[in-house]
Prior knowledge:
The protein is mainly α.
Amino acid sequence: MLKNFIKEFKTFALKGNVLDMAIGIIIGANFSKIVDSLVKDILMPPLGMLLGKVDFSDLKISMGSEPDVVTINYGVFFNTVISFAIVAFAVFLLVKAINKLKAKEAKDEAKAAPAPATKKCPYCCMDVDVKAKKCPYCTSALKK
């Protein structure tokens, strides 16, 4: 019973879809780190300088005056929203490029498909050469 369970799990885990998904998750997590760094280290410092030398990660609302007070860190949230927008835009561009490639492949396949060599006789439903004017099986006149 345990052997069957392990065998079934191994079959599941080694399927192409599962491996592709795992690779996507790993790459996505690392891409997220890159985007986070882009926002925090490259985009936000000049934006903060333009808005009066504001560091967005330091923007917060204090819920009291004691040193260990609860804060609402809306600056960190702002950084996260910008990171999300960048990731969403990158995914949009990626999907758009993939759809364009798929459309080109479908168009190329449609061009490459040869014209059919036969057609069906509308009367006896037999396959007849496309150039035939009469069906050789039922002798009916065929339309072009």
